Amino acid sequence: MDINLKKEIETRTLDPDTVYAVIGPELKLRRIRLRKTLKYVAYRICSISYVSKLESNYLKPNATYLSEISKRLGMSDVYVSTLFGLREVVEEGIKGLLFNDNKCIKDFILKKDAYYNYRYRIIIFFDKLYDNDFESCTEIFKELTPIAKTMINYDFLVFSILSGIYYYKIGKLNDAHELLISLINFDMNTNLKGVLYLYLFYICNALGRPETIDYYNKAKEVLLFLGSYQMLDETNYYLAIYYIKNNSYDYALNIAKSINDTKRKQTINFLVSYFKNESLRSYNKKNLLGISKIIYDLKFDSVMLNSDIEMVKEKSFKIDYNQIIVDYLLLSDDLKIIYIFDLIKNNQDIQDSYVKSFFLNESLKSAKKTGKYKLIYDYYSFCKGE
Hints:
22 helices, mainly alpha
């Protein structure tokens, strides 16, 4: 976790924010960027002390003084008015995370020119996280972290939570957990708490931590309160995945009953059948395309799948390697080793690393069962460059 952000979280105390709180830091940043002194800003408008207190949020600005000071710093009345409105956009963005809806953020960005202040950059951060544009996210994160101390409390909490989500999405799960857990005791509104609990559930699930169920219950309470049933469906799906990873198949099946999305429900039922060694031949192959990656991740990788992947759509992953693994899984145990042998004999080119690893693991399991299959594992390893 970034040391500067961590230090700011540890030292910050939260006082009530007002609608005017954003203007002080904005004026100060603009003045510093223009390399102007307090005396220059205050000249023939107000006292130097007034400008200093305004920048530090020690007073509610006089409308006339604020207008004159803003204009002296090149900020129009429309610009200043928009600064206040950005708070509402940020709040809608947080709500969007709980409803999986980024429309407000998208609409705002399309209608507005870029505002060179941290709150607008936070809004762009929202947008890039939704789009999984991690290169842009990294640039914005590096830009905003050094000025986190200048942010008002609400914006600071939003930025910190988004940073935790950013860490989670790029696979830095321990950093994500450390960051979000450090925010847990701060006073924040229901929407912020809901996002915090939701992503702590995702992260703890991925890390296999025992408090996973606790954060699920907290997130569920907020989602039910807000009426976000679509996100509740997704959260229930990942809870079922959690139970499958912990071999609690009956719990997973009970959770699946509450899932409305048919594809997710079918996925859970299929995974339980697979791990319980029940017959899989009754499943329609068309609905199984994509499930092979879930099985691989559950068996060989503890990292949770990204929430934006629709697991069982044909377009989720390339059909070629999905079909290879799904065909293999539908075979009886006696035929599986023959399937692997045919792959070797036909020298089938498998480009995807997880498929390659999957069959190496499968052939290793067969080699351990009986010595006569060891040659197949060694030959397969040699062919695949292991």
